[in-house]
Amino acid sequence: MKVVGSTCALKSKVGGEIGLSDQSLAISKCKIPLLDEQMNVFLQDMNSCYSKLKELVPTLPTNKKASKVEILQHVIDYIWDLQVELDEPEKSRQQHSVPRTPLTTLNAELASISVE
């Protein structure tokens, strides 16, 4: 039987079997064109989803590039705010309840603490 496509040897050159981390490294060095193509398509699709989220969420700053984590934090905050509005429309208009701190603010504070 003939092997079609890329192959990798998972045996060590020196003496037989290799450890799990060596095996993982050997597997990661294997290039399988179909999987590379599928991964590229997947990453392009994910990047387009992040771009769409940036368009839809009004709280994202437009003057700076946001990381994927920041985008997700703003999305979570925005969904939370919408949910509060749906659950208690009168309260959110009156603003008597204590507002919660957005994730982006909390993470900025944590980042400044860890830098110090």
TrEMBL record:
Pfam families: HLH (PF00010). It is found in: Nucleus. GO terms for cellular component: cytoplasm; nucleus. InterPro entries: bHLH_dom, DNA-bd_prot-inh, HLH_DNA-bd_sf. The keyword Transferase does not apply. GO terms for molecular function: protein dimerization activity. PROSITE patterns: BHLH. Residues 30-82 form the BHLH domain. GO terms for biological process: cell differentiation; circadian regulation of gene expression; negative regulation of neurogenesis; negative regulation of transcription by RNA polymerase II; regulation of neuron differentiation. Keywords: Biological rhythms, Nucleus, Repressor, Transcription, Transcription regulation. PANTHER family: DNA-BINDING PROTEIN INHIBITOR, DNA-BINDING PROTEIN INHIBITOR ID-1. This is Inhibitor of DNA binding 1, HLH protein. It comes from Poecilia formosa.
